[in-house]
Amino acid sequence: MNNYLNVANFPTASEQEQQALSNALDAIIANDLQDGALPMLGRFRKILGDNLRREEWDGIHEKLLTLFKCGTSTPLDGPMIGVSMSIRDSDYFKEAANKHGENRSMLAHLEWMATLWNVTYASTGLWMGKTFEPVSAEVFAAKCGHDPVAIFNYDPETTRIGRNFFREPDDPNFIQSLGMPVLTQFWNLQDRPLDTKAPGFDSQLLAQNLAKEKAIPYVKTGGIFLSLPGKSVVAEMRGKAVYQLNYRWHDLHPAFPMTRLIDELVQIEDGVYLGQLVMATHHYSLGTLRIPLFGAPPPEWELGEAYSGDTSLDYGYQNNGFFLMIDTARAREAFADSAFPNLRPRPGERGWKELGYDQPAPAKPGAVGTASIGRAAGATTPNCSVNSPRFVWNRRRKPTMATSASCCNRANPFCRCCNANKAKFPRPAVSTITCAISKC
């Protein structure tokens, strides 16, 4: 039984709309959610990450929207594993499309941002999550520009200051290799804090949170936000209760596109939170330009309209995609083959030992055998059967996790099916291997 999904969580305008939402939720529970939220969302992510299945994207987005509407607003605390589900284009012709009975304009239906993301960074795990840390009333007031409404809503129990986690892609191509250096430069990313006394953080670094972060492989952190319970800023949400993350405050020094960004989160299962990316299409800044003059502190020029929190303005907020927050207590489930194996910690990263991936995988009942791999291979004893952790050699001749359904492919040096290719894929000596896949 799911205690978080309920049509009563969304303020429908009529009984007919409420019934339609209830029917949509019941269909998801019956057809998609039977084995839990993480496997379901893993299947959704595979579809949204495949440009050849774009005709299915609208249907998946509708399911995610239904889950978001029915989710429960819950404050978050501490580090969370992040999964980028989808990115959607801003629709600057939405009003015209609505007049013709369409939800999105033809231009927005091109989804060029999602298409480019899928062929560049979608599978790399460049973004790995967020943390939500305690913040004092004084720091909060300074960061929100002493906005009276924000200060009135401050509550030390539910208000947090947060930052994002970023990870180096594995064996990146040229485009992927630019990701971390560019983000570090333009978003002012900092090194991962390793203790509570790490300098440069406005939050309260708690030992228990840093311990939980060990389940998340990341090296850089930044993209600061203030978060607290609130009402959705997206008009179609009709003031639905959400946990809201605001990156836009001027004194957070956001870089574009965070100058436009507000995230909204709801809980849909124990330890699983569904978020929607929300972007302003009006009244936003492209960032701040600073030019040093004669050694003095550089003056600032705002490139556009700085965010002030003025609720009388129409910012034209729109849904620009979905993401997940997953409690670190469910890290092994999140990184499972049935969910998001591409985010699994790699050898040498934080989380690899902490989550036990350096230990031999237990043999499954009925398995024919396992591969015994020496330490020189950079791994221990993965099982050669379907859906178990496997290793292949990448272009740099380093072991990397394989996540395909079958280990029997030309790039797998640990399956005897591939022995004919060992000259092409050199490997250290290993013991006799028996593959559990019948076609071997």
β-strand percent reads 15-25%
Sheet of most strands: 8 strands, antiparallel, barrel
How many DSSP-defined strands? 13
The residue ranges in which pLDDT falls below 50 over 5 or more consecutive positions are 368-440
Tally of DSSP helical segments: 11
What value does the average pLDDT take? 85
Describe this structure in words.
The chain has 440 residues and is α+β, with helices and mostly antiparallel strands. It has a domain at 75-291 and 302-343. It has helices spanning 15-31, 37-48, 57-70, 94-99, 112-120, 137-143, 148-153, 174-177, 179-186, 207-213, 331-334, and strands at residues 78-87, 127-134, 160-166, 190-191, 220-231, 241-246, 261-269, 272-279, 285-290, 300-304, 318-327, 390-393, 399-402. Helix 1 crosses helix 3 (57-70). The radius of gyration is 23 Å and the shape is globular. The model is unreliable at 368-440 (pLDDT under 50).
Topology:
Elements: H1 15-31, H2 37-48, H3 57-70, E1 78-87, H4 94-99, H5 112-120, E2 127-134, H6 137-143, H7 148-153, E3 160-166, H8 174-177, H9 179-186, E4 190-191, H10 207-213, E5 220-231, E6 241-246, E7 261-269, E8 272-279, E9 285-290, E10 300-304, E11 318-327, H11 331-334, E12 390-393, E13 399-402
Antiparallel strand pairs: 1-2, 1-11, 2-3, 3-5, 4-5, 5-6, 6-7, 7-8, 8-11, 9-10, 12-13
Helix pairs in contact: 1-3
